[in-house]
Amino acid sequence: MNSKRYRLDALREFAEQQARFAPVPVRLAQLERAERLLPRLKTDEPATYQDLVHEITSRPTESHADLTFNGADVVHDVLLFIEHMSDSLNLDVSTALEPVLTQDELSHKYKVATKTISRWRARGLGGRRYRFGNRKRLGFPLSVVERFVTENAEAVQSASQFQPLTTAEREWVLRRARRLARWGANQTRIITRLAKRLDRVPETLRALIRQHDQQFPTAAVFPEAKETLSQDEKREIYHALKRGESPTSVGKAFNRTRSSIHRIAKEYRRDMLLKVPLEFFACPEFALENADDVILIPPPELELPSLESTTERANLPSYFTDLYAFPVLTREQEYFLFRKMNYLLSQARSARDQLPRFQPDVAAMDAIDALIETSQAVKNVLIRCNLRLVVSVARKHQHDESSFFDMISDGNMVMIHALEKFDYTRGNKFSTYASWSLMRHYARYRYTEANRGNRYRSADEELMDVMADERASIGADEGRLNDQRARIEVILDHLNEREQEAITMRYGIGRHVSPQSLDEISVRLGITKDRARQVLASAMAKLREIVGVEEGDDSVDSP
Question: pTM of the full predicted structure?
C-alpha cells in the first residue's frame, strides 16, 4: 500500500500508526466503522480531523484541534484508509464471511464500464484489499455494494442503462464535428452541441473524438487540441484575465470555452495560494470567541514621530534619516504586533485549508489574500521599527568603511528571517533574539569576506602583497606593469634556480605564462607534490626577507 497517495498528511500519519501498532481486532473494527462513515461524507462539506478520528476509533482525540479539511480530500483519504487497513490485515478472500466481488465482476453485474466503478468509488463505494491466490487485488464485499446501490439508486440505474454508440452514430459525430471545426467552432462547444443532439453525456463524445485523433493523427478532427494545459499556459490565462482581457478572447487564443477559462484561472490562483508559506505561532487568545475584537485593533500608542524630531536629523544620510520614521517598540507594542501578525496568518491558513480542490470560491480566495496582505503590512511595521537595531549592531562589528552598507543590507535580511522565526509566546523581547542572530552573522561575515577576497586575488596581486607594494588596478598602464615585472625579476635573481622556477610557474610570472598547480610543478621539477610545496614556502620566506631589506635601505644584498 503506497501511503504517498494520501492528500492529507495528518490522516496518512494516523493510518500508518494504526496499521503498525493497533491489534488486529482493533484494526478490523476501525475498517468497518470507516466503511459505514464513507457514505455519510460529502465532497462539498468540510470535516475536522478530530471528528474523523472519533468516528473511526470511537474515541475522542486532542491532537490537531485546528485542522479542518475540505470534503473531497476527506472522501479520497478515507477510501485509502479502508484499503490501507485491509491491506495490513492480510485478508484472504476465501475466509471472507460474505461474497466479495472484483471490479470486473461488479462491472459485469451492473452492466457498466470499469471507469464507472472508479467514479462510484469517488462517490463512496469502499473496497478492501484481499489476497486472491498469490496476489492482492481490490475487492468489494457484497453488503458494502448493496448499501451503496441503495443509497445511489438513481445514479446506478442511469449508468446501467448506458448503451455504447452505434457505428452510424460514431461516423455521424466525427463527420459533423469535423465540419463544425472547419467553420471555426470551439471544441467544447462542438462536443456539447452534438451530445445534446444525441442525448448523450459530453464525455462520451469527447472520448470518441480523442481516440480517433490518436489513432489517425493525419485526419484528426482537432489536430491542435490539447488534453491539458501546461503550467505556463495556465499562468498566461490567469494574468490575461487579471489584466482585464475578456474571457472570450482568451478562450479563443487557447481553444477553450469562457467557463473553462474562468475555471482554469481560479484553480491556478488556488495553486498559487497553496505555495504561499503561512507558518505561525499560536497562542490561547486565538481560540477566544471575540478574538477579532481583541487582536485586530490598532496597536497601543504607536504613532509616528513629530516633524521636529525628523528635521533635527536632517544632516544624516537619507537612509539613516528614514530609520526614524518608525519608533522603537515597547515590549507591549511588540507583543501586540507579533500576535496580530500570527493571528492573521492562522486565519489565512485555516481558510486556505477549506478551499475545495476544484472550482474554488473567488470570494474565499479574495478573503485569504486580504488576510495575507494585512499580515504583511503588520510585518512591514515590525521590520521598519527594528532597522535601527541592525545599524547599531553592524556599527559595533564594522571593520571596513567601504563594507558598512553591505553589512547593513545583509543584516536586514538576517533580521527579517529572525522575525519570521521568532516565537513571541515565550515572553522574550525580539530585539534580544535578533541581536544574537545579527552578532552570529557578523562574526561569520568577517571571516567569509576575508576568504572571498583571497579566493579571487590574482597571482600578480599576491606577489605584490609580498613586496609590500600597492596593487596595480585593473586600468593600470602598461609601463607601470612592465616596471613591476622588472622589479620582480631583480628580486628573483636572489633565489636559487629551483626556487626561481617554482615561483615563476606557480604565479605565472612572465609573458604568456599561466599559473600552474602544485601537481604540474612537481612533475616539471621531478619532485613530489609535498616537496614542491616546501620549495615554494622557502622561496616566499626569502622574498619576504628581501623585501624587508629593500624597504629598510636602498641596497639589496645577496642573502
Answer: 0.49
